[in-house]
Write a structure and sequence with these properties.
- This protein is α/β, with parallel strands linked by helices.
- The chain has a single domain, classed as Rossmann fold (3-Layer(aba) Sandwich), CATH 3.40.50.960.
- The chain is 48% helix and 20% strand.
- The longest helix is centred in the middle third of the chain and has 20 residues.
- The protein is globular.
- The protein starts with a helix and ends with a helix.
Length: 153
């Protein structure tokens, strides 16, 4: 839960002049769709409409799509959403780590801030707890706030 100071700061943000793109993964679609809805809800709360939305196969592909969008000149900020849920192999570590590193690299290379709404969780129950509908905990919504705050710097 955000502290009182965090909530007061969020109320001061105004994203109405920002152009924001949303990039989402198809893998784990049920969870990711809730994260995307949270991101849209979070952006809307600050006066922002998503101007462009891209969908990619999975979290591993998010950095590439985010970079293409960042380089396009059409957006001031980006929100990415995805869900990497641990399975029986080491594939989880590869996808989660490279996705996170790739998103950070895109921000640093392009100067376009990216709100990171990619879950890296142990199981579906944890993913569901972090992608709740309106009024609940939703990492997509939190990522939208982060993107607006960074774009406002």
């Amino acid at each position: 839960m955000a502290s009182g100071d965090d909530r007061a700061h969020k109320l001061e943000l105004d994203g109405s002049d920002l152009r924001v793109g949303l990039v989402k993964a198809r893998w784990n679609a049920e969870v990711v769709d809730r994260l995307a809805a949270g991101a849209r809800r979070g952006l809307s709360g600050y006066g922002v409409e998503v101007i462009e939305e891209l969908t990619v196969p999975g979290a591993f592909e998010l950095p590439f799509a985010a970079k293409q969008l960042a380089l396009s000149g059409r957006v001031d900020a980006i929100v990415v959403v995805g869900a990497v849920i641990r399975g029986e192999t080491t594939h989880y570590e590869l996808v989660a780590g490279e996705c996170g590193r790739g998103i950070m690299d895109v921000q640093l290379e392009t100067g376009i801030p990216i709100g990171m709404g990619v879950l890296t969780v142990e199981n579906v129950a944890q993913a569901n707890a972090r992608s709740e509908d309106a009024g609940g905990h939703n990492v997509g919504e939190e990522a939208a706030t982060a993107a607006i705050e960074l774009a406002s710097l």
